[in-house]
Amino acid sequence: MTCGNALLQKVYETGFALDEVNLYLDTHPADSQAMEYYQYIQKANQDAVAAYEQSYGPLMANQVDANTWNWINSPWPWEGGM
């Protein structure tokens, strides 16, 4: 697995865990351990996204710097890009 794929996998994993604990907290709002885990996994997800974006650029269109559009500068997937 390449470094980019590993970083993206971490984004996926932490995002999935964040969604799951969010659903759990919908039905168990008083669970303090779940709330602690939510805060932990939210930070882990933010860190994973930041690490990926630092190396490979924004993951979402709303995270693009309004002054530039750098996706066009990277190789397209059929050119070997990610």
What does this structure look like?
The chain has about 80 residues and is mainly alpha-helical. It has a domain at about 1-55. It contains 2 helices and no strands. The longest helix has 25 residues, at about 5-25. The protein is elongated, with a radius of gyration of 16 Å. The relative contact order is 0.14. The model has no long low-confidence stretch (mean pLDDT about 90).
| Major β-sheet profile | none
Total helical segments? 2
Count of distinct strands: 0
Taken in chain order, the helices and strands follow as: HH
Q: What's the rounded overall pLDDT mean?
A: 89
Q: Over the alpha carbons, how many angstroms does the gyration radius reach?
A: 16 Å
Head-to-tail CA distance between termini: 13 Å
Sheet-strand content, in percent, reads under 5%
Notable features of this structure?
elongated, 2 helices, 61% helix, 82 residues, mainly alpha
Task: Sum this structure up briefly.
With 82 residues, the protein is mainly α. The chain has a domain at 1-57. The protein contains two helices and no strands.
